């Protein structure tokens, strides 16, 4: 349940940053935990990474290729949702 809430709040962060004109993306299991520069206290865990900043004017070739391969595959929320209650009754987060 914690990971699910982190996902929803992380996505809200990404959406708000995008509305403010910042470049950002959602990075979950595609980053290298060994090379990530972060100091964690005992018991802390790094779940995901959401980088914020100003994106380059021209998108790198790798990113353009990835976007082109996933474009056109979006589905409406009701097709993606698999919760224990109807989508209309799902929590806002």
Keywords:
2 strands, two-stranded antiparallel ribbon, globular, mainly alpha, 93 residues
Structure description:
The chain has 93 residues and is mainly α. It is built from 3 helices and 2 strands; from the N terminus they run H-E-E-H-H. It has helices at 2-19, 61-70, 77-80; strands at residues 23-24, 52-53. Strands 1-2 form a two-stranded antiparallel ribbon. The longest helix has 18 residues, at 2-19. The N and C termini lie close together (12 Å). The mean pLDDT is 82.
List the helices and strands and how they pair.
Layout (H helix, E strand, L loop, with lengths): L1 H18 L3 E2 L27 E2 L7 H10 L6 H4 L13
Task: Provide a brief overview of the structure.
The chain is 34% helix and 4% strand. It is mainly alpha-helical.
Total of helices: 3
Quickly give the structural class.
Answer: mainly alpha
Distance between the termini: 12 Å
Q: Based on CA inertia axes, which overall geometry fits?
A: globular
Residues in helices, as a percent range: 25-40%
Low-confidence stretches: none
């Amino acid at each position: 349940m914690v990971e699910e809430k982190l996902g929803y709040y992380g996505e809200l962060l990404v959406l708000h940053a995008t509305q403010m004109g910042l470049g950002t993306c959602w990075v979950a299991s595609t980053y290298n935990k060994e090379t990530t520069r972060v100091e964690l206290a005992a018991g802390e865990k790094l779940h995901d990474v959401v980088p914020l900043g100003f994106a380059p004017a021209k998108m790198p070739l790798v990113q353009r290729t990835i976007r082109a391969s996933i474009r056109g595959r979006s589905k409406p929320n009701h097709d993606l949702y698999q919760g224990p209650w109807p989508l209309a009754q799902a929590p806002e987060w």
